[in-house]
Design goal:
Blueprint: H1 2-19, H2 26-39, H3 47-54, H4 58-70, E1 74-77, E2 81-84, H5 86-110, H6 117-124, H7 130-139, E3 175-181, H8 186-195, E4 202-208, E5 215-219, E6 222-226, H9 228-232, E7 234-239
Antiparallel strand pairs: 1-2, 3-4, 3-7, 4-5, 5-6
Helix pairs in contact: 1-4, 2-3, 2-5, 3-4, 5-6, 5-7
C-alpha cells in the first residue's frame, strides 16, 4: 500500500506540472488543502503530521513534497517541514472555497444532511468547473460560512479566520455559542446533530468529569454528555451573561 501510494501520488504530481493553474491534479489539491489545514496549528508542517492527515506513508509524502516544491507550490527545507508558497496558498484557498460552497449548496438546495456533504463535496470539488461553483455561490447569496461554520474564502482568495477555543477547553459554568464543527467524520456529525450542537447553538458547561472523563453540558435547556475527543472538534465562542439574550438559536441543517 505504501509503495502504491507513493507511486500514484508521484505520477499525479508530475502530470499536474504541465496542467498548471486550475487544472491541478486531485492529489496535488488534496496535499495543498492538508498543508493549509495543518498550518493553522503552526508552520512549517512536519512530514509525519502530513502523512497522518492524509493517511499516506512518509515516503509517499516526501516524494510528493518534492513535486510540490518543483511546481513552486510549497517551500520545503529537509528535516524542518513544509509550508505553502504564495502560489500554493492561492491554490489551496481556491479548492477550499470550491469544497465549502458545494457543501452549502448541497444542504440548502438539494436537501443533504450535514453529515453527508463532506464526502460528496470531496468528490465534486475536483470535477466542478469554476463557473459552476461561482454560480452556486451566487444562488446562495455568496455565503461567508459553510454549513459546519467554517469560513468560505472569497472568489478573490481572501479568508477571514477566527481561532475559537474547543468546547473541551471551557471551564465549568461557562456559556458559549457553537461556531464551528469539524466536518470530516460522518458518525460524529450525526451524533452532534442528535445532541443539537450546530453552529449558532448556545451551550453551557455543567461539569468536567475527572480523569479525562466526559463533559456534561446543557444544550438548549437539555443536559447532555459527550467525550472529550468529541468536545475537542466543537469550536465555540465564550459569551457573558450580558450577551445571552442576543444569542442566536441552533443553526440546524440550514
Amino acid at each position: 500500500m505504501a509503495n502504491g501510494s507513493a507511486t500514484d501520488d508521484s505520477k499525479r504530481g508530475r502530470s499536474s506540472a504541465s496542467a498548471g493553474g486550475s487544472n491541478r491534479s486531485r492529489a496535488v489539491e488534496d496535499y495543498l488543502k492538508a498543508i493549509h489545514h495543518l498550518q493553522r496549528e503552526g508552520a512549517p508542517v512536519s512530514t509525519s503530521a502530513l502523512a497522518q492527515q492524509l493517511e499516506r506513508s512518509p515516503a509517499s509524502v516526501t516524494n510528493m513534497i518534492k513535486n510540490l516544491a518543483e511546481l513552486g507550490l510549497v517551500e520545503h527545507e529537509p528535516y524542518h517541514g513544509v509550508q505553502l508558497s504564495e502560489a500554493g496558498e492561492r491554490e489551496a484557498l481556491r479548492i477550499i472555497r470550491r469544497h465549502r460552497v458545494i457543501e452549502a449548496y448541497l444542504i440548502e438546495k438539494l436537501g443533504y444532511s450535514w453529515d453527508l456533504v463532506h464526502a460528496e463535496a470531496e468528490r465534486l470539488e475536483h470535477a466542478a468547473s469554476d463557473e459552476l461553483v461561482e454560480r452556486m455561490a451566487t444562488v446562495l447569496g455568496d455565503p461567508e460560512l459553510d454549513p459546519h461554520g467554517s469560513p468560505i474564502p472569497t472568489a478573490e482568495g481572501e479568508l477571514s479566520e477566527t481561532q475559537h477555543p474547543a468546547l473541551s477547553a471551557l471551564e465549568t459554568g461557562m456559556t458559549a455559542l457553537v461556531r464551528e464543527v469539524s466536518d470530516a467524520d460522518e458518525g460524529r456529525l450525526r451524533y452532534l446533530a442528535e445532541l443539537g450542537l450546530f453552529p449558532g447553538t448556545r451551550v453551557e458547561v455543567l461539569e468536567h468529569e475527572p480523569f479525562e472523563g466526559p463533559i456534561r453540558v446543557r444544550v438548549e435547556g437539555r443536559d447532555r454528555s459527550l467525550g472529550r475527543g468529541l468536545a475537542e472538534i466543537v469550536r465555540v465562542e465564550p459569551i457573558g451573561e450580558e450577551d445571552t439574550d442576543d444569542a442566536g438559536g441552533p443553526g440546524g441543517e440550514n
